[in-house]
């Protein structure tokens, strides 16, 4: 189903709930992947995803179609991930390296992220990145989004995103090739 068809159903009061259900079905899997790569834990990802769709429901009437629906939902998911991670750090009064250690442990235990040794090393390298840099790296590397799309989602300039991605890739390469 096309975005415009989903929006048409949502904008019609008689089919709003059905349209929203279509939206959730259409974006649930890709947004789960986005969220899971950021928060690692399945239960946390489910909680964050629920918040994402709650915010989408509350804000859909204000969606102006300045960007694609996908971009708008992705932006909400990205912001929710960053807020979740920030709350987690504040709640436990943990420095960044302690949160990273927790995420490393979850990555090693996680069936969804299991794989070869090099995949696990890549995941650990990505988890060492600051949250926003990790988000940009994931968008470009895993989701294969163009820098223009990432800029639209994050509200960051293309030049800054390219620099951030390059720096992230360099850090990851250094981590993976070290010892």
TrEMBL record:
- Alphabetized InterPro entries for the sequence: RNA_pol_sigma-70-like (IPR039425), RNA_pol_sigma-70_dom (IPR014284), RNA_pol_sigma70_r2 (IPR007627), RNA_pol_sigma70_r4_t2 (IPR013249), RNA_pol_sigma_r2 (IPR013325), RNA_pol_sigma_r3/r4-like (IPR013324), WH-like_DNA-bd_sf (IPR036388)
Give every RNA polymerase sigma factor 70 region 4 type domain span: 121-172
Q: Which UniProt keywords apply?
A: Sigma factor, Transcription, Transcription regulation
Q: Which domain of life is it from?
A: Bacteria
Q: Which PANTHER family match?
A: RNA POLYMERASE ECF-TYPE SIGMA FACTO, RNA POLYMERASE SIGMA FACTOR
**Which NCBIfam families does its entry note?**
sigma70-ECF
**Protein's UniProt name:** RNA polymerase sigma factor
Q: Which organism is it from?
A: Imperialibacter roseus
């Amino acid at each position: 189903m096309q975005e415009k068809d989903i929006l048409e159903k949502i904008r019609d009061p008689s089919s709003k709930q059905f349209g929203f259900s279509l939206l959730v079905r259409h974006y649930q899997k890709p947004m789960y992947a986005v969220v899971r790569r950021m928060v690692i834990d399945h239960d946390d990802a489910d909680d964050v995803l629920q918040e994402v769709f709650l915010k989408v429901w509350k804000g859909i009437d204000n969606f102006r179609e300045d960007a694609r629906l996908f971009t708008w939902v992705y932006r909400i998911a990205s912001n929710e991930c960053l807020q979740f991670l920030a709350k987690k750090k504040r709640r436990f009064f943990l420095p960044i390296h302690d949160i990273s250690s927790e995420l490393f442990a979850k990555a090693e235990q996680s069936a969804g992220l299991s794989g070869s040794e090099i995949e696990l090393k890549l995941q650990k390298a990505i988890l060492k990145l600051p949250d926003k840099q990790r988000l940009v790296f994931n968008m470009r590397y895993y989701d294969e989004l163009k820098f223009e799309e990432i800029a639209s989602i994050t509200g960051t300039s293309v030049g800054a995103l390219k620099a951030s991605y390059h720096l992230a890739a360099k850090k990851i390469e250094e981590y993976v090739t070290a010892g």
